[in-house]
Amino acid sequence: MDKPLQRIDHLMWDAEAPNSLVTIAGMMLFKKPINKEKLIQIIEDRLMRFERFGKKVIFLDGSPRWHKDEQFQLQTHMHHIALPGRGGYKELQRCISDLISQPLNYNKPLWDIHLIDNYEGGYVLLWRLHHAIGDGMGLVKVIYSLTGTTANSSLSAVDETVPDHKKVSELSQLAEIGKGVYEDAKHLIQNPALLRDSLENSWKTALELKELFFGKSVKDTIYKGKLGLTKKAAWTDPLPLELFKKLAKQHNAKINDVLLALVAGAIRKHLLLHGQKTESGLKIIAPVNIRKATEVNILHNEFSFISLDLPVHIASFKKRIDVIREKTAALKPSIEPFFINELLHFVADYTPMVAKQLLLEFMGKHIMGVVTNVPGPSHPIYLAGNKVEDLMFWVPHTMPLGIGISLMSYNGKVYMGIVTDDKLVNDPDKIVNAFTSELSRLGKLVV
Description:
The protein is of the alpha+beta class. The protein has 14 helices and 17 strands.
């Protein structure tokens, strides 16, 4: 039976525009070639358990609905290509940038896989999934469910009668940003006296809601302007998670604070490179996981976000991290994520598509970009018998934003991916290089 797209799933569908595709892209790197037949079998056994991967979106009475694709053929969602020439970073970058600039086929279920040969002697698997299927936490759960902790376990079919409690437990602990923030905010809403005290003690945090909608425009930066149809992806080499932990301990901060401070430094250098002023911070949004523990195994969109000024005007890493640490700590008892989540639900359920897009455009005038952090498995995982060497993703542009930054950890390593609108910013590698160079400099000072 057809099911309507509801709440934020519906919002993600309506938010898509030709120059702002709402597609999440993820990449797995392997040293050895993947057996295509084994991969197909794993996808049939494991991925197709999630019904949305066998459904397309149709319109009935003017509303989008999930509809079983009677013509579904798994092979049409899988593509096998090879990089030209030496098959290095630049060749893969052009390939991925081209793919993330292309919309998915709306006449089929909203996902596909590209198996890419000839990358630095290894192989790449690129996933593309529409945000309407699920949010970052839900999609990490899906990708994780396709894998095993050993080569052999990654080849077997999943026994659905035996729930994998270990994986569910790990997934429930993945998100560090905003952990518990939804329940905290809900508690405040239900207790007016506590809410009044919280607002009185955290007035700057309360003002973020006003700034999000009526704050300073960022239209004068290189990250704002009329978007084009092509995007450009870039990413770091794997970086040691242990170094981020040491920096967090040294500065009495969280790993996420360290990441944001490094992102701010990289954006600052990029702005200065282009002759831009750095007199004040630039507002970003950061998605927040607000799933309850009982919802971690459900594939849908259930998130909110926080907004904060990225301190690109501060040259010192220590001062940047102090500002970010204070801000993220203040957001813990804030009503902002709760309010934004309720607003997203209202907009999704009660406004037409044109109104949704206008609201997103209005909010986008005050926001430089999105920075998201999705921690992955802390141990090696295997797909179709092959060890996943590296794992990273790129966040979609769900608003008219010129830049999106994705942070991910996997097996003791950290990755930063970035996607920019090629018409506005055609040198995202400069941001990546600034990020890694500052981390390298700081690493030499860590005891």
